[in-house]
Amino acid sequence: MNRVPNIAKQPQKSSQRKEKAPPEVPAIITDKERGSYYEKGRFLGKGGFAHCYELTNRATREVVAGKVVPKTMLVKQYQRDKMTQEVQIHRELCHKNIVKLFHFFEDSLNVYITLELCARRSLMELHKRRKAVTEPEARYFTHQVVEGVLYLHDLKIIHRDMKLGNLFLNDDLVVKIGDFGLATTVDGDERKKTLCGTPNYIAPEVLNKMGHSFEVDIWAVGCILYILLFGQPPFESKSLEETYSRIRHNNYTIPSSSTQTASNLIRKMLHADPTKRPTAKEVHRDIFFKSGFMPARLPVSCLTMVPKFGGHETSMMEENVAPRGTDARVQRPLNGRAGLAALPPHMVANNAEREKAQQQASEATFREPEDAYLSQLFHQVAVLLEQRIPGIEEEEAALDGYQSPECLPIFWISKWVDYSDKYGIGYQLCDNSVGVLFNDNSRIMLDQAGNELTYIEKSNKEHYFSMQNGEIPMTLNKKVTLLKYFRSYMNDHLVKAGEGSEQRVGDDLARLPTLRVWFRTKSAIVLHLSNGTVQINFFNDHVKMMMCPLMQAVTFIDQNKRMLTYKLSNLQRNGCPEKFLHRLKYAKTMIERLMSDANVVAHNPSRQADVPRGMASARSASAGSRGPIHTGNHLPQSASGSNIHPRR
Q1: Residue 626 — very low, low, confident or very high, per pLDDT cuts 50/70/90?
Q2: Residues 575, 533, 126, 268, CA torsion sign
Q3: Which contacts (CB < 8 Å, 24+ apart) does range 42-46 have?
Q4: Which pLDDT does position 596 carry in this prediction?
Q5: Which spans in 196-330 are helix H?
Q6: 14-115: which CATH number, 3.40.1080.20, 3.30.565.10, 3.40.50.720, 3.30.200.20?
Q7: In CATH, what is the architecture of 374-439+477-643?
Q8: Which segments are annotated as binding site?
């Protein structure tokens, strides 16, 4: 029988009134009741009074998430009661879409809750990177949320804080509902009176203190679906008062781009009268989840890139799908960018829903800025550097309280080989997928399993092939051969990794970020990925930095292989070591150069050969002696290259 949590009262001391100070967590955490020992690993994040760490069970080597709450934050009885109720409710739950709570214990300093590790953070980080997602993705995520809510409601539990930040994702992108701090149980027709929730998701009956029940979770799911589809909360405004007024008056608008089934479901879930909202069971059976394409699984790349829903091609003859707002005669968008290639005829005939999904994905790629977020990033860095930034020591900046690990990039370049005096630059992403940016500005990418091949023309038109089915057109044979050589060289000379991975369901939907532009200076190599990330690897001390305009954050990998991630706004508020500040100033100059070169190409295409790789080739910027590619499986060892193997 499970022990009821009994949190010992901790005497309040005057020196313990700094509420945001991180807990004092020992390197080895002991669960005396079970005789278990946990090694404290990397910091995962913080929320409320809790800090979260990776914990490794010394005996089993199982890695879990450890939620740590200092007892100094549990001085008052209501605080202890609230945490006790959270644990009592959560520990009894067992469902694929609920974060599993394993154990609860305490020592003299802290209360510990061990939880299922959700390594891919939450839907909030997805939202920040992607804003609106495609309808198939929204359907995939929301369906899992509804399954979790249905399970809770069957147990007479109301979550009461359903929001993107409490919907966690494991490595397979399975949604897990977590954070039961506001959850409660109800008996029969009982109506709860507590004013609780998060402003953008709070139901009108909670605001009006009419009493609430299961319907508040349905309302929140309606808000979640709306955000996923349209990129912002339905009632959001510039002030809390205005947001609450909009909620009370049911004042929201569904964009005209919405499908009828999505609009209808949102309207039902956001009905002002809670008695007229559907139950979780009715939502689960809604036509929205049955009438459109819903992937069985989504790839990790969708956390930062629009997926593809089409099949493979067998030739390079397919025309682009022409999204709304494009000139169909030339199959090019009005903003000058090309999109995803069309579905092959056999796929269209067999799956009309998937054809529609591919159309939506194509339209989503046209909404991405033409400069891949460079101007946004430049503005963010420029605004930061205009401020007076306090100086702090490097070791202080490395403390958990300064970090924002939720902003860690999904992808970065972990290895690269510069062979641009003949062919281009080869690189490996952190997931072991491999790409080449050729001197003619075309790009090719092979996933980590070695099965899914993407070829991107100079015009940005994308084509997808399977390496297993012999579908590669003859026109691509030379470039595929070069890709294999680059891949072999990096595996053999820059640490072998990634071969033999099994292909999983959903891998064929992945669109990986590709290297868009690069150049080298005397001090560093500068790399710009198609998802907006700018990466700078410094040659002298081997420090790396990755800047993400979508998360408005920067990650440094220092000489000790530590990954240190900061929100730009926190650097201005908390301070920045001089060593990192100097690199941010350098980065601003490099981003400005990337933007300048892009503008040259945009206004004078004939100058393409004079600008960095990705617009064209930066032959003068590359260095190192090189010879012709050998006929074996390797590039010559004299080609330049680099590794990144951070401690995470």
Answers
A1: very low
A2: positive
A3: 42/405, 42/648, 43/400, 43/403, 43/405, 44/405, 45/404, 45/405, 45/406, 46/22, 46/400, 46/401
A4: 85
A5: 204-207, 215-230, 240-248, 260-269, 280-284, 288-291
A6: 3.30.200.20
A7: 2-Layer Sandwich (3.30)
A8: 67
Asked if residues 424 and 436 have their Cβ atoms less than 8 Å apart, the reply is yes
Lookup result for tokens 């005996």 = 59
**Band (629; pLDDT cuts 50, 70, 90):** very low
Q: Which of 11-20, 103-112, 516-525, 555-564 has the least mean pLDDT?
A: 11-20
C-alpha distances out from residue 49 to 23, 46, 181, 193, 504, Å: 9, 8, 11, 24, 38
Positions at the binding site for ATP? 67
DSSP codes of every residue in 8-52? PP----GGG--TTSPP---SEEEETTTTEEEEEEEEEEEETTEEE
Q: What share of the chain is helix, strand, coil (3-state, %, to 5)?
A: 35, 20, 45
Residue 435 pLDDT greater than 90, yes or no: yes
- CATH code of the region 123-291: 1.10.510.10
Q: How confident is the model at residue 104 (pLDDT cuts 50, 70, 90)?
A: very high
Active-site positions read 161
